[in-house]
């Protein structure tokens, strides 16, 4: 498997880092948006699986994450994330067209991917989201929300620790340990980023229109970080071509669970039907 890296320039001039695991003449391409606090390098095993099954994989480090520039966990406004996805997809398309393109987002990346598709209406073969941040699985402390809203106005770069429970990302202890020791992983989020994402999540949590592209929405039944019931309600509420899959016995990162190969094969089967 070959990994290639690329620096992209965001619309506001920030340097964004992207990885690619390309293959010759792919039957499809996955453009991946990772979750909060992590980075694209944590998806190499997913890329290896899909490479072996005929798909190229490209992955972006969100601004303020991984090897991309920007204050950790910060975006001046929510639309900056969507603009970055647009820049990223333009790059992917320039390298892979006319291969069918699938956008894949996990957790915060699922929030971003869903909002990007609903608001920007890109040309895609399909959308895949796992554990999307439509609603958190726990109630954030009201004082933190109030402080975030206040600071977004007067000091948007004000940082707080997200308080993410690392032990709940996966039931595989080696995954949790690697996450804790990964120097590119962080737990910081700023006022403007946190409130922007919460507002975008609230939009999804009340959205009842049509999905403009075929969509696969997956969520772990035992997710303690983002809400599985909110994902299921979203899938039942919207119209259009959407498939919902609940994974019993799994934590938040279904792609990092002991049963991940079953998840990958399910994704592959759905993609093959849509290609």
UniProtKB/TrEMBL annotation:
Keywords: Hydrolase. One of its GO terms (molecular function) is monoacylglycerol lipase activity. SUPFAM superfamilies: alpha/beta-Hydrolases. Its EC number is 3.1.1.23. It comes from the Bacteria. InterPro entries: AB_hydrolase_1, AB_hydrolase_fold, Hydrolase_4, MAG_DAG_Lipase. Residues 25-258 form the Serine aminopeptidase S33 domain. It catalyses: Hydrolyzes glycerol monoesters of long-chain fatty acids. Belongs to the AB hydrolase superfamily. This is Monoacylglycerol lipase. It comes from Runella rosea.
């Amino acid at each position: 498997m070959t990994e290639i890296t690329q620096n992209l320039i965001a619309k506001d001039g920030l340097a964004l880092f992207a990885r690619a695991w390309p293959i010759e003449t792919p039957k499809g391409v996955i453009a991946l948006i990772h979750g909060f606090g992590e980075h694209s390098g944590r998806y190499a095993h997913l890329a290896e699986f899909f490479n072996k099954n005929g798909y190229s994989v490209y992955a972006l480090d969100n601004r303020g994450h991984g090897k991309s520039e920007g204050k950790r966990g910060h975006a001046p406004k929510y639309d900056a994330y969507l603009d970055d996805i647009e820049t990223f997809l333009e790059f992917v398309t320039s390298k892979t067209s006319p291969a069918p393109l699938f956008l894949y987002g996990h957790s915060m990346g699922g929030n971003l991917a869903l909002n990007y598709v609903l608001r920007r209406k890109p040309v895609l073969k399909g959308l895949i989201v796992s554990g999307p941040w439509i609603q958190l699985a726990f109630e954030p402390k009201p004082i933190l929300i109030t402080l975030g809203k206040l600071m977004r106005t007067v000091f948007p770069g004000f940082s707080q620790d997200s308080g993410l429970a690392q032990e709940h990302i996966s039931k595989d202890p080696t995954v949790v340990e690697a996450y804790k020791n990964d120097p590119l992983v962080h737990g910081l989020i700023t006022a403007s980023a946190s409130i922007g994402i919460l507002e975008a999540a609230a939009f999804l949590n009340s959205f009842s229109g049509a999905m403009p592209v075929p969509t696969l929405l997956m969520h772990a039944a035992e997710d303690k970080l983002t809400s599985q019931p909110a994902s299921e309600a979203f899938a039942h509420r919207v119209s259009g071509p959407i498939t919902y899959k609940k994974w019993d016995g799994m934590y938040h990162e279904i792609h990092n669970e002991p049963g991940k190969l079953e998840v990958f094969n399910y994704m592959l089967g759905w993609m093959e039907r849509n290609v």
